[in-house]
Amino acid sequence: MKAIIFDIGSTFTKGVAFDLDKSEIIGRAKYPSTVNEDVTIGLQNVISEIERQTGLNIRDFNIKKATSSAAGGLKIIAIGLVPDLTTEAAKKASLGAGGKVIKIYSYELTSSDLDEILYLKPDIIILAGGTDGGNRYYPIINAKKLSRLPLNIPFIYAGNKDLQDEIKNIFLSNSKEIYITENVMPEYGVINIEKVQNIIREVFLRNIIHAKGLDKVQEIIDGIVMPTPLAVLKGLESFSEIYGECLLIDVGGATTDVCSVAKGEPTQNNVILKGLKEPYVKRSVEGDLGVRVSALSLFESAKKDIIKSFSHDKVKVIEEKVKFLNINTSYIPKNDEDLHLDAILAYFAVKIATERHVGHIEMVYTPMGTLLFQYGKDLRELDKVVCTGGPLIYNPYRVESLKGVIYSNDEPFILKPKNPTFYVDKEYIMFAIGVISEIYKDKSMSLVEKYINKV
């Protein structure tokens, strides 16, 4: 059985061909994306190269599917009531569905909030707020304000279930497309995100692909089946079925993604778990931590520590090189000095992104003694980390970059893995494994075993 899986990105369109019966890659190609012209041009160039490599025609492949993060990805705005509760739950649902959360809002939307929403041009807006039987005011008032905006996009309501009919009528009366689903937080502190994630994916397939002009690919292949980040997450789930709880780090030019498949419950005595319970499969995206498009913001985030890695006379040169990378986003390092800089930038992208993803412990002093509260996942005992993304696959100094994942005694309350084994997606196929896993789980796991190897 032959499969060909594509990733239509904003910069490149990539394709990987497989013989699934043998669990082998039989062809691969990439070509600059042509989303702003005709998306099928870049796709057809990739197909032609893979046909040349394999001696097969595109019609000979049993499976022909694609993922996409083109045209800015799936841009989502999440709106809730309390920042650390319903708003955070809506954000987690969006990220877990492969979305790019461009803004979150809490409480009542102001005029300036509404103006900003129009400026941001989201693909989907998720409105949450109130536990079931709880707050009624904020979901209703925000629904009224949102429904009057001149936006022709889908809205998803995932708040207080008692308001579903009223919310639906508010949007329909203003000729808006509205999807109603289960509350992301039906009870205080309880997260329920699976249903809304399914709706997000359904909306992506039905609406967003067409809106971004990507539906033309259906003339050539079987269509785009999910956002690329969701495909990577599903690939990691296949990895976890073999190796157990795990973490994935994906360093890119614009963002660094971190995904975990783990419970993250407290691993030490006398620790009290607080805050929202984290989803077992969790994804976080750091839009300010990339080694090209976001190189300047990454540099500013860790400037003092980055400078320490170089001699004093090199500081100005390094600052200029970072500015160069920020502008020349397709630049590939050509000498040892540039490779070293890329590795250092990747180290801090990994370090900061992992610290934001994992949980932390807060020490509180009370008359009864010292209390330890854990927020988020404790991943100190997690022992499998998968790395992907150019700097972590191709850079000869990648082992140094990966040290950013590891727990530090200098920061004992940041709950990063203590002694992980690293695996590398050396063929850059995690997204394809994720797509295949939805059709043939066993074959996706065979690909994991063959191609996701220890560093």
Automatic annotation (TrEMBL):
Pfam family, one: MutL
SUPFAM superfamilies in the cross-refs: Actin-like ATPase domain
Domain of life: Bacteria
Name assigned to this protein: Glutamate mutase
